[in-house]
């Protein structure tokens, strides 16, 4: 009878195989792992065949490697005890070329199955030297478990060696499952230990990757110039600076502009005041400072908020915080709907992304304070109140509505848990007061009258849910799906250490979708464009929040799966992921094709010299406008590169009466300005 496997055939041994057996048994690599150390002879093997094999006390096979049909070793069951239904297992691979191919493991599996099913054995045991770790691992894969460790059992050449007793029981399917679970558990321990050692390295690599991806953003910012609302907003402060070169006069002019906007255009007083202080008031070449400030504030906010949640609340290591935050930030910056509006057009970026960053910092401050056991310091409370009030005066749309909800939840939490409820109430009330002031501004009504009639509440809510789904369909891409997987092993390590049980994950996901979709409702209600049509700068902050919720759900579902699976299956989910981590990383590299992602797009337009050429045109235009007071000026049109188009920012048109043209002419004091 020949026993078949995928890699080997097991052929019953005959006396014709004696030369193979004698040569293999006397090979040093084989002999050193046998208890019997004497030289093996032809006579010994023939006696073994006549007394043991023929009598049925031993069942022995020659291992034939299928590739090449070459004999490579032998496997056997000796001391077959039919009464007690047990036998002892033995194996040796005599050919060096056949080692480390899984041949021994498969041969052991085949003969054990043969012993259980054909010979009716219940137990197959073996003896192996404890220092022969490769053999032990192979036997474990074949279904053997350690039953005993015999210390200093064998003395060879004056050296005592430990002996391990292992056994495989004929509860075949059960044993196989148990062994798989044991192997999985062992792998998990090794993986967790490996990840713990490599966390710092991975964190450093993540930070370096983020730095590399951010370089094009900062580089691109060097070649941007004021557009559209930039001129309208800073005209007053610009003239104040030119006439007086006094910072105080500039601040007074900013205050006057803020008051005028509050009455006649928008209630977002903090936004307007900061916009009036735009970098580049006197020189296009310093305009880039604005984008650098917004970019840096965005990064600080992300990392600060992540630290508050992961380190201060969850009690995790800083390496995990860096890894998870970096990956979240990368997804946010690489797939922005309109990248120019997000960071490079000052008025739009300051009103939304900058305001979003400030609000994220406020949420982090409160969360960190609630997680801390120290008493609230009066000075810190006052500073937080002032900060909350000021950012309450930023845009009162999506991010403010969301922050109000977050603050409400934090207030409820602090009251229920009796943790610093006065602090959260006061800070939240400061923000809410400023927010109410922005909503109640007379300028909002003026602006609303120019937009159109309000839509119904029910209509707005239903449409918001629909628009939310449409946007998710547009935003979902391979990059966004694959990149979070790189953080998954460390997320698993995080949630394993957290006592929270992560209940009702479906409800949490539905709630997240409701929160995300609700950010569209105010704009639909206010008839802010067509149904589902949102300006790029508004869409940017909704996207940023969507990614935060997305990563939050990844963490929550991972926590629930880990808890659920661990409690029911007595093992961890992590091993199933980490085994394909390298493959996922390669897929990510392939999926991240330059051209569709913001850093590559920005880098392309800088490297080709397009932005530098545009900047030279802007400087030439500025020189012409500065030297043409009271004149009708015709300037060259400047086009934006494809792929970084803006929805809110705009260029000078051929119509001298266009609002952008009027803003530019007021800024420079010319009679009119238009393009050719």
Describe the overall structure.
With 676 residues, this protein is of the alpha+beta class. 63% of the residues lie in helices and 11% in strands. The protein has helices at residues 18-25, 28-31, 42-53, 103-117, 133-142, 172-221, 229-244, 247-264, 269-276, 288-313, 318-334, 339-343, 346-371, 378-392, 398-416, 421-439, 442-451, 457-475, 478-497, 505-518, 521-525, 536-569, 574-578, 581-591, 598-607, 610-626, 659-668, and strands spanning 3-4, 8-12, 59-65, 70-81, 86-93, 123-129, 145-156, 159-169, 632-635, 672-675. The strands form two sheets. An eight-stranded mixed beta sheet has the order 1-2-3-4-5-6-8-7, sandwiched between helices. The longest helix is centred in the first third of the chain and has 50 residues, at 172-221. The chain is elongated and about 120 Å long. 38% of the residues are buried. Mean pLDDT is 82; it is low at 529-533, 567-580 and 590-595.
List the helices and strands and how they pair.
Blueprint: E1 3-4, E2 8-12, H1 18-25, H2 28-31, H3 42-53, E3 59-65, E4 70-81, E5 86-93, H4 103-117, E6 123-129, H5 133-142, E7 145-156, E8 159-169, H6 172-221, H7 229-244, H8 247-264, H9 269-276, H10 288-313, H11 318-334, H12 339-343, H13 346-371, H14 378-392, H15 398-416, H16 421-439, H17 442-451, H18 457-475, H19 478-497, H20 505-518, H21 521-525, H22 536-569, H23 574-578, H24 581-591, H25 598-607, H26 610-626, E9 632-635, H27 659-668, E10 672-675
Parallel strand pairs: 5-6, 9-10
Antiparallel strand pairs: 1-2, 2-3, 3-4, 4-5, 6-8, 7-8
């Amino acid at each position: 009878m020949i026993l078949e496997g995928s890699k080997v055939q097991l052929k019953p041994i005959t006396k014709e195989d004696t030369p193979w057996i004698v040569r293999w048994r006397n090979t040093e690599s084989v002999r050193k792992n046998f208890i019997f150390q004497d030289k093996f002879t032809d006579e010994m093997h023939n006696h073994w065949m006549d007394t043991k094999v023929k009598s049925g006390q031993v069942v022995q096979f020659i291992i034939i490697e299928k590739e090449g049909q070459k004999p490579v070793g032998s496997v056997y069951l000796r001391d077959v005890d039919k009464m007690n239904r047990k036998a002892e297992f033995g194996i040796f691979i005599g050919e060096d070329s056949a080692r480390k191919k899984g041949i021994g493991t498969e041969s052991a599996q085949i003969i054990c199955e043969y012993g259980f099913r054909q010979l009716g054995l219940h137990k197959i045991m073996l003896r192996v030297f404890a220092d022969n770790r490769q053999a032990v691992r192979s036997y474990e894969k074949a279904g053997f478990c350690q039953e005993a460790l015999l210390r200093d059992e064998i003395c060879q050449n004056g050296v005592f060696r430990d002996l391990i007793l292992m056994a495989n029981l004929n509860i075949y399917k059960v044993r196989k499952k148990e062994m798989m679970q044991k192997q999985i558990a062992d792998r998990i321990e090794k993986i967790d230990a490996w990840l713990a050692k490599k966390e710092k390295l991975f964190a450093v690599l993540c930070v370096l990757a983020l730095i590399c991806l951010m370089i094009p953003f900062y580089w691109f910012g060097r070649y941007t110039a004021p557009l559209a609302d930039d001129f309208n907003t800073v005209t007053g402060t610009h003239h104040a600076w030119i006439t007086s070169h006094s910072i105080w006069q500039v601040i007074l002019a900013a205050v006057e502009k803020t008051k005028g906007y509050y009455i006649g255009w928008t209630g977002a007083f903090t936004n307007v005041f900061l916009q009036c202080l735009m970098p580049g008031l006197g020189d296009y070449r310093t305009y880039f400072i604005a984008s650098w400030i917004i970019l840096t504030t965005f990064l600080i906010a992300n990392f600060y908020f992540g630290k508050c949640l992961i380190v201060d609340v969850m009690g995790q290591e800083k390496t995990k915080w860096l890894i998870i935050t970096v990956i979240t930030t990368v997804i946010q910056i690489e797939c922005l709907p309109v990248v120019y509006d997000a960071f490079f057009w000052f008025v739009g970026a300051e009103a939304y992304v900058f305001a979003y960053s400030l609000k994220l910092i406020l949420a982090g401050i409160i969360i960190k304070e609630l997680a801390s056991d120290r008493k609230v310091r009066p000075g810190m409370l006052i500073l937080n109140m002032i900060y909350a009030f000021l950012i309450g005066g930023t845009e009162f749309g999506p991010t403010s509505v969301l922050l109000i909800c977050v603050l409400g939840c934090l207030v409820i939490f602090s009251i229920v848990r009796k943790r610093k409820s006065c602090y959260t109430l006061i800070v939240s009330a400061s923000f809410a007061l400023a927010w109410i002031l922005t909503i109640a501004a007379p300028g909002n009504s003026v602006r609303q009258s120019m937009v159109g009639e309000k839509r119904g509440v029910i209509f707005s809510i239903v449409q918001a849910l629909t628009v939310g789904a449409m946007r998710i369909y547009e935003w979902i891409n391979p990059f966004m799906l694959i990149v979070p997987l790189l953080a998954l092993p460390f997320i698993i390590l995080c949630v394993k250490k957290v006592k929270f049980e992560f209940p009702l994950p479906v409800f949490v996901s539905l709630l997240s979708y409701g929160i995300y979709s609700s950010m569209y409702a105010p704009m639909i209600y206010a008839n802010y464009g067509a149904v589902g049509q949102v300006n790029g700068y508004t869409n940017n902050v909704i996207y940023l929040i969507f990614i935060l919720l997305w990563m939050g759900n990844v963490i929550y579902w991972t926590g629930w799966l880990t808890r659920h699976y661990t409690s029911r299956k007595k093992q961890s989910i992590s091993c199933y992921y980490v085994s394909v981590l390298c493959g996922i990383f390669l897929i990510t590299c392939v999926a991240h094709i330059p051209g569709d992602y913001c850093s590559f797009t920005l880098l392309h337009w800088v490297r080709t010299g397009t932005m530098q050429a545009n900047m030279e045109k802007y400087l030439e235009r500025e020189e012409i406008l500065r030297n043409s007071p009271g004149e009708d000026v015709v300037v060259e049109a400047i086009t934006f590169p494809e792929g970084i188009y803006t929805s809110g920012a705009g260029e000078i048109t051929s119509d001298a009466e266009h609002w952008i043209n009027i803003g530019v002419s007021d800024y420079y004091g010319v009679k009119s300005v238009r393009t050719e």
